[in-house]
Amino acid sequence: MKAEKKVLGHLTKCYSVAPLNYKGTEHFLVAAEKKDPCLLFDMDGNKVDTVWEEPGGTMSMVQVPGTDGQFLATQRFYSPNDSKEAVIVLVSPDNLGKWEIKTIAALPHVHRFDILKRGRTLYLLACTLKSGHEYKEDWSSPGRVYAAVLPEDLSKLCESSPLQFEVIQEGLFKNHGYYRVEENGVDTGLISCEGGVFQYVPPFQKGGKWEVHKLLDTPASDGVLLDFDEDGEKELAVLSPFHGDCISIYKKSEGSYKKVYEYEKKAEFSHGLFGGSLCGKPALVVGHRQGERNLLCFTWNKELKAYQWGILDRNCGPANILHLKKEGVDLLISANREIDEIAMYRITP
Questions:
Q1: Pairing relation of β-strands 2-10 and 341-348?
Q2: Cβ atoms within 10 A of the Cβ of 18, count?
Q3: Is pLDDT above 90 for 96?
């Protein structure tokens, strides 16, 4: 595959990217890891608005389903060592073109979160990287996975009346990776940590129990399920260990996942991840933030019956990657954190 690059602008330590349907048209958001802005772009890559100037520290952003431009975001997570004040905020546009921002949950060390829908119920699934620390690089306090039912009217949530969470799972060290995966028409969350890769399935009814399935024991930083060879069974692509340099693919055999491929180079500080369809075929896109700092693409060659890879961009250091489609053309939006660059890649065969 080929990538035609367009630099949209520069944002110090740009990190989080997310789609946003606003005023009836598709847009996307880019926010910074440090005390820097969140920006709104149209599908041509033009900057439309600045949603906030600070406080930044944004690891995740997710639109509230069925709304016009309303979304949730993390703020004040500036690094694993500076995340005690992390919160989840509700961001709502008004009729005057301004953005109302209010805290709806104080959740120390919250790194990833998502909104999963099952039936008519919306669930917020939130992951904390750790539960505390006493000094730099202290990983002795494990993270947790939390869940909450989102009320139909989010406007009543605020700091004094926050969202109420339940703890689904504890004891997850370096609880870093998250990816939404649809399974049998149901939204599920794939969570990666030192203890391996887990899949979380929301309850069928409010008040029900979440299903938690352990897919892999290998310490992992991120993962995604994707049917590379199109045989009807999804493979598990994994970046390991935490902020590690190994890119692997596992195939299910006799009820468990076995490694069938490993990228032959060291992809130092692997981080950005997309798994889905590109140019009509399954593809895995990975960015790594140290070493060569490339944006890589992995696919399955049916004729050779082998995995193959290519480089979409070099020395860019992606933190996160978003896939969009415009008029049938595949686009990748990459927060190239290590060079403070927001980039759009037009992908063609």
A1: antiparallel
A2: 21
A3: no
